[in-house]
Amino acid sequence: MKSFTKLLAICLATGLVAACSSGPKVDDAQLAVKTTEQPVVAAPAPAPVAESKIVQVVVPAHLDPMSALSKNRSIFFDFDDFSIKKDYIPVVESHSKYLSANPKLTVRVEGNADERGGREYNLALGQKRAEAVARSMKLFGSKDQQIEAVSFGSEKPKALGHDETSWAQNRRVDITYQAK
Q1: 177, 93, 82, 109 alpha-carbon torsion, rounded to 10°
Q2: Domain 100-180 adopts which CATH fold?
């Protein structure tokens, strides 16, 4: 059994050495000739890259929810008053100048009141607030045909509470741009 194992080991070693032999020796000059004599195969052309069709879309300021024009569309009033506070003059001015630069646009100036007071009183007060803002917008350059003043009285509250904080939110004029 030992002689069989030795014989097997010798055969395996011989086979391994024979498998590792590199065949006939080739010098570097022959190798260089052989590599240059082989036909050159061009690599396949890369697949065409599709061109990007990204289109930049410009959203008008009155439709862009992140613009200052969209974020500031309400003018708030004191109790039982329809005069525009100094803090809100820049809001009125910016909308007016935007309208004068875009003569095809129209707005509805919506007057609102808090829940205190009768229905007719609140409608009249809301209308006075809307007309005050509309007059101011015209002074800043908007055209008469671009502005419609309406009153909702206390029918469209912004805040539903029954306290001064809620009432203050409801005493306002909202500027809404009209779709064509």
Answers
A1: -10
A2: 60s Ribosomal Protein L30; Chain: A; (3.30.1330)
Q: What is the chain's alpha carbon radius of gyration, rounded to the nearest angstrom?
A: 42
Give the closest residue to 104 by CA, choosing from 178, 8, 13, 17. 178
Can you name the residues that pair with 110 across neighbouring β-strands?
Answer: 150, 174
Query: What amino acid occupies position 88?
Result: Y
Task: Note whether 156 and 103 are within 8 A (CB).
Answer: no
DSSP state of 111: E
Q: How far apart are the first and last CA of the chain?
A: 103
pTM: 0.68
Query: Residue 102: CA atoms inside 13 Å, Cβ hemisphere, count?
Result: 14
Domain range annotation of the chain: 100-180
Helix (H, G, I), strand (E, B) or coil at 174: strand
Mean pLDDT to the nearest integer, 113-120? 95
pLDDT tens readout for residues 7-42: 445 544 555 445 555 555 545 544 444 444 555 566
